[in-house]
Structures are given as structure tokens and as C-alpha cells.
Design brief:
The chain is of the alpha/beta class. It folds into two domains: about 90 residues, Ribosomal protein L30/S12 (60s Ribosomal Protein L30, Chain: A, 2-Layer Sandwich), CATH 3.30.1330.30; about 110 residues, SPOUT methyltransferase, trefoil knot domain (Alpha/beta knot). Helices cover about 35% and strands about 20% of the residues. The strands form two sheets. A five-stranded parallel beta sheet has the order 7-6-5-9-8, sandwiched between helices. The chain is elongated and about 60 Å long.
Length: about 220
């Protein structure tokens, strides 16, 4: 049966996950788009529900992705374009939205490499900025991202969207600035801060050793 009403209880529940309080209470979040769903499943994330609208698909691989999600236990719900648009964050939805559980991320899970490259994101307020940092760290081959003294929840759908799914594949930890500093120092990692008041530019700095680059407010 195709879901055609935005008042459908399942649609309303997925829509409610736009709110941080709802996400943190239920430990659930919303993913949108073919790449994000695919990367999430590649990383072992279990999707509980998938809403889809074939009229909005951009390619020909969506059916296989939905079959894969269903095989891993997700419930599938076809919707009208109006319902899918209601649930979407993007201006141009791709016809795929899913609900998944939120993971916890601790420093104990972070790869500890003395020659590692770490990105420390401190007091980041805008979800899109945090997602972009995750995407950039993934593209640069960073060892991991440490989020300190967070101002936004890392599973905000806009973080997931801006990361293009890198949030699921990039080693990630949430902690305090103090604990992150102790952990990095214990590995002998050099800590470099990005600031407009710096006297040296990154291209003139020796970053061949283990390095943590700190950015944020």
C-alpha cells in the first residue's frame, strides 16, 4: 500500500525525528539519499524503515538498494511524491529516506596511531559545517575525527547530508576538549590549531609526524 497522507503515523514519526530532543530520546535519526543509505549499510548500520518514491529516483540502482535494505530487516514503504517531499531535507529529494539507530562513539574506539592524522572539531555549532569537516577528513584519508564540546548532535540529518555519508565510514569520537587533549598527548601527537591570528600557514608546516589539526569556534 502506498502512503499518501502526511498524517500517516509512520510518516509523522519520521518527521518528528527532525527535532534533536526526539532523536536523542529515541536514539534514532533520518538518512536521505542513495549515497547516504548505501554508505550506512556498507558500514553495518541497520535501517529500520525505508520510505521511497520511484517517481523521484535519479538512477537505476535504487531497487537493488531497497532489496538489500529489506534483506537486512528494514521495512519498506512506498510513498507519493508529496509525502516524500514532506520528509525530505533536500531541495531536490532523491526519493529515498530511511530511519536508523544512532551509534555511540568514544575515544576507546578511535584508532590510536602515533603517526596518525586527526581532525579535532571543537564547539561546532552548524550541522552543515560539521558534515563538511567529516567529508573533508574522509577525502584526505584522516585517521579519525574527534568532536569536542559539541553544540550540535552529530546525527543531525543535516550533518549526515553534508558528510555525504562519511559519518558512517570515518572513525569518530565524541568527548571533551580536556579528554581529547590528554588522549592525543598520550600518543605524542602534535596539536596544531587553525586560527586567523596564526603566524605560519599550513603549507609551510611540517606535518609528516602524527598531527591533530584543531578547528572550530
Amino acid at each position: 500500500m502506498k502512503l499518501s497522507s502526511v498524517k500517516n503515523p509512520r510518516v509523522q514519526h519520521a518527521y518528528a525525528l527532525r527535532e534533536r530532543k526526539q532523536r536523542e530520546t529515541e536514539r534514532l535519526t533520518v538518512l536521505e539519499g542513495y549515497r547516504e543509505l548505501s554508505r550506512a549499510m556498507d558500514a553495518g548500520v541497520k535501517l529500520s524503515e525505508c520510505f521511497f518514491c520511484p517517481e523521484m529516483f535519479l538512477g537505476s540502482n535504487e531497487a537493488a538498494l531497497l532489496e538489500r535494505a529489506q534483506g537486512q530487516g528494514a521495512e519498506l514503504f512506498e510513498t507519493t511524491p508529496e509525502v516524500l517531499t514532506k520528509l525530505a531535507y533536500r531541495d531536490r529529494p532523491e526519493g529515498l529516506i530511511a530511519v536508523s539507530a544512532i551509534r555511540s562513539h568514544t575515544l576507546a574506539e578511535m584508532p590510536a596511531k602515533k603517526d596518525g592524522l586527526y581532525l579535532v572539531a571543537e564547539t561546532i555549532e552548524k550541522p552543515g559545517n560539521l558534515g563538511s569537516l567529516l567529508r573533508s577528513a574522509d577525502a584526505a584519508g584522516a585517521t579519525g575525527v574527534i568532536v569536542c564540546d559539541k553544540r550540535t548532535d552529530i546525527y543531525n540529518p543535516n550533518v549526515i547530508r553534508a558528510s555525504t555519508g562519511a559519518i558512517f565510514s570515518m572513525p569518530l569520537a565524541e568527548t571533551s576538549s580536556e579528554e581529547a587533549h590528554k588522549w592525543l598527548k598520550s600518543l605524542g601527537i602534535a596539536i596544531l590549531s587553525a586560527t586567523p591570528h596564526a603566524t605560519a600557514v599550513h603549507s609551510d608546516s611540517d606535518m609528516k609526524q602524527g598531527v591533530a589539526i584543531v578547528v572550530g569556534a
